[in-house]
Model the fold of this input.
Amino acid sequence: MIDPTLPSHMRPDRSFQGLILALQRFWADKGCVILQPYDMEVGAGTFHPATTLRALGPLPWKAAYVQPSRRPKDGRYGENPNRLQHYYQYQVILKPSPPDLQELYLASLDAIGIDLKLHDVRFVEDDWESPTLGAWGLGWECWCDGMEVSQFTYFQQVAGFECAPVAGELTYGLERLAMYVQGVENVYDLNFNGREGEDKVSYGDVFLQAEQEYSRHNFEHADTSMLLEQFRMAEKAAAQYLEAGWNADRTRHLMAQPAYDQCIKASHVFNLLDARGVISVTERQSYILRVRELAKACGAAWLATAAGGAGAPCGASAA
Amino acid sequence: MPDLLLELFCEEIPARMQPGAAEAIRKLVTDALVERGLVYEGAKAFVTPRRLALAVHGLPAAQPDRHEERKGPRVGAPQAAIDGFLKAAGLASLDQASVESDPKKGEFYVARIHKHGRPTPEVIAEVLPEIIRSFPWPKSMRWGKASAKPGALRWVRPLRSILCTFGPETEEPEVVRFDVDGLASGDVTRGHRFLSEGDIRVRRLDDWLTKLEAAKVVADRERRKDIVLADAKDLALAQGLELVEDAGLLDEIAGLVEWPVVLMGAFDASFLDVPDEVIRATIRANQKCFVLKDPATGRLANRFVLVSNLEATDGGAAIVAGNERVIRARLSDAKFFWDTDRRTNASVPLAERLEKFRNVTFHEKLGSQYDRIQRIAELARALAPVVGADLALAEQAALYAKSDLRTEVVGEFPEVQGLMGRYYARLEGLPEEIAAAAEEHYKPQGPTDTVPTAPVSLAVALADKIDTLVGFWAIDEKPTGSKDPFALRRAALGVIRMVLENGLRLPLAELLAGRFGAGLSVTAERRRTGDSLDTVLDLSFERRLIETIAVGTRGITYEQAQEEVKARGTAFASEATADLLAFFGDRLKVHLRESGARHDLVDAVFALPDQDDLLLVVKRVEALSRFLGTEDGKNLLAGTKRAANILRIEEKKDGVSHDGAPDPALFVEAEERALGAAMADAEPVIAARLAAEDFEGALAAIAALRAPVDAFFEKVTVNAGAPALRANRLALLAAIRRVTRAIADFERIEG
Done:
């Protein structure tokens, strides 16, 4: 049920930002640290180090955050009512996965105004896999009245490492969910700030121009020679930082996160190159493999850090 | 007799895995019980999205007692032997054993062991944890705190609770207590996720079913299917519409709901511009909804039937509205694809569209889709005379047939490939033969699918399948055992059925050799530098054939390479042709056997050389089968086999063949003279009739030999004393063998 004390412009079914705030509050109440988006371009909330890296290792972890996600290929010049090259995901990661994760998820839907006595919510098989991250998990896509509104995954492997313990990951497609609770057919018609009349700001007011500009950029103008060079540079830098981060006996790592940033960078650059159509089918596979190799090496490095669960604090053994 | 009830309650099980899981739990548990002496009367498994359950009816309360007698060593045997015996029999001392004697062995010890059967619940509690831990889910996972340690329990999705009771119908059953990785069994379950609250205590099956029903769970999968189907039909009927039934979808839906509530929704009638099949694919694939037909027009209506898992407080209005929104968005996409395709087809000529296939790999070693389409077109043209199709039309149809693979609609819904080709061809104003071929060239898809009959469709369908077979044969990707990733058996069977059902005369050997040899006509181009074989070979399909047989790293000249490639290529083509023909032979045997033909007759015909005309092979088998049904046929078969047996023995003894013509001057007995004359008369007749492919006629001529053959065996001694006489008689037998072999190898026929 939506918090009845909320002013109408803050209600999750009236404004896009109200939806985000309701989720933030819900998961804060469940003990999550509420993080801010990662300050790099990523294809999905999973890339945030708070998920990819924190899913590895034995230490418990609960976090929730909004992550702007970029899928250069999905740009439609602002002409498609459902497809965007930049959109928001709401990401929750709970490690180890709690026994009542499904119930928590359903309660979060209730909190944003989806009445479970009125709407048909279903867990439909959907096994998740990220070839670039070397990650996979089992779970479902969550349907509300036939529409996929979230992805629910029990991570089994990340960066090529078994998850021990397993983390539960929830990903809400915020625009889609907002369209549903607001009863809107076109994403650009979403009410962003919950105000009416002159004060109203729509999703289109905020993002339509950006979708048009980035679609031009992604498909027509992105500088491919620069991007190719950037990919090589990121790959090289990642390898360099990874190497430099290991201590003498390779038991502790001191720079897993800066190295992982380069892996994220390479992944996004690859997505841009892919959208520009300069990567052939066979090359595509090899680019994906190269990013995965980076992700794996970063995962190995992370597991040798304190937050990755390595026994002693990083500094202690790094002579 | 007591019953067992087991329920494994977990998070949502993928629909596609549910039927398999139900079967597995039934088999694993009942097998384990029977193995331990617990025979039951009946067992039934239940599965819903959230539970896997099993009821075993009529089990004994305990295992039967076991009496066992174990013979031991003789009295006075060494201590080691006695100790071993005591240990094996579970005895404390020799006092517990008795002494018996027999005349051979003398006095020896015997242990009589009485083992009380253990109570059934104890046995159940012992077998279930292992069955649960090693349950054969196609994919399983770990979860929660326990997953921090290696060896944690795996299940399809997190396992939440286990219910297990055992007891007779009249008494309060007991809980069978066991523990799987910290999850203890009990007698508690839960009802529907949204329509019921709290724990439910359960005693036994009937109780479980009733209480679950009250808690809005239909445990029986078949019943859920019945409910969905009946309600969907009723809803359709009320609107004067007809449900488009879909067994696969019904199966899936039964695995997505515990409490099916069937509702009807609508979409804008303007979407009906889109072909029915595309609408259906959209609604089925994305939304798992049924579509409806208007019986007046035979076309789809702008309605759909959805199955929700909820009895909603508003009667389902919000659910219907939500589903309608999604379907509207999906149909908008489908309509957009359909419109885009039509625009593209109208503005971009086919040749240009085909160019795009250059970038699509068909198979790494077999070139692009473009190469493949060109090959199929060439082959379709070559096959056109065989099927009575117009050459140009067949070629054009083949060029068009795969073009829909690049369209938006097929990209989104691969299951409408071919069908879209047909729609688009019509819209482009192409001849109906081309439109039909676009769809029909994929046929037959399986042993029960219909076979194309239109000549142009046939030409393309045959070309498509033969090209696939030749290609994969050339790169040595043949089916092995149960592995047939490129569906080559299906392709061969398709060719066989098209040939037989259309009565086509297709000389396969020549055709296949031509295809395998096609590479040889292409001259490898000399590259700018270098004379070695590696550098002169291009990587087009034909050259790849060459490459697979001839690439070496030796430094040989271009001309030498070319010669070698040619020579090896010829050898390769004939070898591959023979091998692929043998594969066709095997598939034909399987096909004929399945349609009831005797496999020995098929073998008998295939034993003859050059059997590459499938239609003639079948005609021979049929004629032979009828012939062997007659008295003459049976007797002649016996006579021929007798002749062949004698020949085999004598030829082995003599080390020479007796195949020469018998000399009439050496005939002595009337019977051998008669047989010689009959044979001389029959042979040209048989040959003429065979040449005319009149197998019945040829066999009738052979039937005329029955009487002289029988008389010959009755009166004439083959192994006569005089060598010349004997040789001549053997030659006569050889003539019988030869004459019958023109039809089939009679020695391979049973009976």
About this structure: Chain B has a mean pLDDT of 88.
